[in-house]
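Chapter summary example.
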Amino acid sequence: MSKKLFVEIVSPEREIWAGEGDMIIAKTVEGEIGIQPGHVPVLSLLAHDAVVRVLGARETGEVRAAAHGGFVSISGDGRVSILAETAELAEDIDVDRARTALKNAADSGDTDALGRASSRLRAAGEEVA
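The structure predicted for these 129 residues follows.
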């Protein structure tokens, strides 16, 4: 059993991030899941407003991404795949644009857009009311 997990975060357009980490925390439709080396294989639906955190990532210590829809797949060999409909790393998020999207979604009542904007802000480390 490896002491690190190999994690990949991908969307249909591209690979968002890949590397090793000690633990992954992701929001699924059934609640948050924590994944450490040795975790049993699982396939679960990501929540439409998910934030994925990779703790113990070698280059930064923590990788955060907003991920919308899709799946989290955990294999028995320590590989974790986040297969999202759309995903964005925290450092790539335009916080002002996400705040505007959150306000517009709240005004229109679009719950999917509200979830996407909210997860983008949370991934960027911003408070969401």
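To summarize the output: Strands lie at 5-10, 15-21, 23-28, 31-35, 42-45, 50-57, 61-74, 79-89.
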